[in-house]
Amino acid sequence: MLAAQGIVIGLIENTFPSPFVFAPGAKLGLANLITVISLFTLPFPQVALLTFVRVSLTALFSGSASSFFFSLSGALLSLLVMSLIKKLGPNRVSIIGISIMGGIFHNIGQLIVARFMTSTTLIFNYLPIMSLSGILAGLVVGIVGNLLLYKLKKSCKLPHSLTTPLKNNPWL
To answer: Could you point out which of 53, 72, 94, 142 has its C-alpha 20 to 30 Å from the C-alpha of 60?
Structure first.
């Protein structure tokens, strides 16, 4: 169900122009809300599988093989970094901070793929612009994700297997 939600969010977002006029090709990445929420409610292997399925099916429905590689590299690097940063604990970094780092590293992952596709390191000149868009996108996704996780914890109208991590989650 989470993968389907992420796919729908991603497909809808693809129909709108980018809010980042200074960074062609950049978008908010609202489908990453699903990754952020699942990172705090599910075990890592399930989150990784969910992310892979979401990115794969979104690319199948809306993109090309190259968009798949860009999306997958960004999503997996972002997930790995967010998971590592999350281990610092809620006293050192917030959900919003984790999401911002995810946004930055999502773009780094995409630039790494672009480097291999273009065979030039000049692509990394785009890193400052992409980092700014990653910070802004991560901020938006982090704020919304934080709000959604808070609402989920308060309502706890989820199956018991999902509410237990919410009830015991020191982040919320």
So the answer is: 142
